[in-house]
Amino acid sequence: MTSPLDPTEIHAFVDGELDAQRRAEVERLLADDADAAAEAKAWREQNDALKRAFAPVMAETVPARLDPKRLSRALPGMGWQDARVPMAASIAFVAGGLVGAALLALVQYGVMGGPQAGPDLSTRLVVLAADTHRVFAPEVRHPVEVSASEEGHLVQWLSKRLSYPITLPDLAGEGLKLVGGRLLSNAPGAAAMFMYESASGERITIVCSRMTGARDSAFRISEGKGLSTAYWFDDQIGFAVSGPLDREKLLRVSRRVFEAMERHADRAG
């Protein structure tokens, strides 16, 4: 039987966006719908994980690139007061504790895995990242084209191919060291993959791909077949971190990647 609750209303319920009367009705419907109740529980757990992982960010200074007046210049016809809307969407990633209304509006891939709105670019990025990880992470002899011993050359080469100044994160604090990277194809343009590895051999991959037409987005998660991918869009580049990680570690690693990649934007701003 089809549930009377659609995903958007479940998200609104979890995020406290419903009025008291509708909230009571949704609670009654969830009590009789095990699948919808499980979805609501999963969204609560994701919100809690985001708040725990990004709580330190709440005390950080907002980057200059998120200034509303600057955003209004980038969005013709929009005053700086209106620019607070996309600004809030960006801050929702930087300050992961603000996951309620921002995630309701911005999440395309949630913990249940399916696209909910505007899935084309998100689907392309998630598929590219997941396929890349599954193909190259198991490789023993040739997982990368350029090894970590040539990190400077690797970063310069792939930055040039993407026309984007890549800055790699230091993930030693997460027990991960750089293995190397390689050039990928994501028609009609280029993409890059960077691989990190733990002392036990567990690998994560970071994919960066130019995604023309992409709008800056909040942090999102896709899960399936033993692989989790965290992804976002910034400056028309898609970023994705994939690996067999629990959600909290995936969030921590993704935050390090985000911070590293944002350094050039803050200097440019």
Inertia-based shape = elongated
> What is the name of the CATH superfamily of the largest domain?
MucB/RseB, C-terminal domain
Strand order of the largest sheet: 1-2-3-4-7-6-5
Helix-and-strand structural type = alpha+beta
| Residue fraction in strands | 15-25%
N→C terminal distance: 52 Å
Task: Please indicate the count of domains.
Answer: 2
Q: What's the overall average pLDDT, rounded?
A: 78
Radius of gyration: 19 Å
SSE topology:
Layout (H helix, E strand, L loop, with lengths): L6 H8 L5 H12 L2 H21 L13 H7 L9 H11 L5 H7 L13 H17 L9 E2 L3 H12 L13 E11 L2 E10 L4 E8 L9 E5 L2 E8 L2 E7 L3 H22 L1
Antiparallel strand pairs: 1-2, 2-3, 3-4, 4-7, 5-6, 6-7
Helix pairs in contact: 1-3, 1-6, 3-9
How would you characterize this protein structure?
This protein is α+β, with helices and mostly antiparallel strands. The protein has 2 domains: 7-106, no CATH class; 120-268, 2-Layer Sandwich (Phosphorylase Kinase, domain 1), CATH 3.30.200. It has helices at 7-14, 20-31, 34-54, 68-74, 84-94, 100-106, 120-136, 151-162, 247-268; strands at 146-147, 176-186, 189-198, 203-210, 220-224, 227-234, 237-243. Helix 3 crosses helix 9. It starts with 6 loop residues before the first helix and ends with a helix.
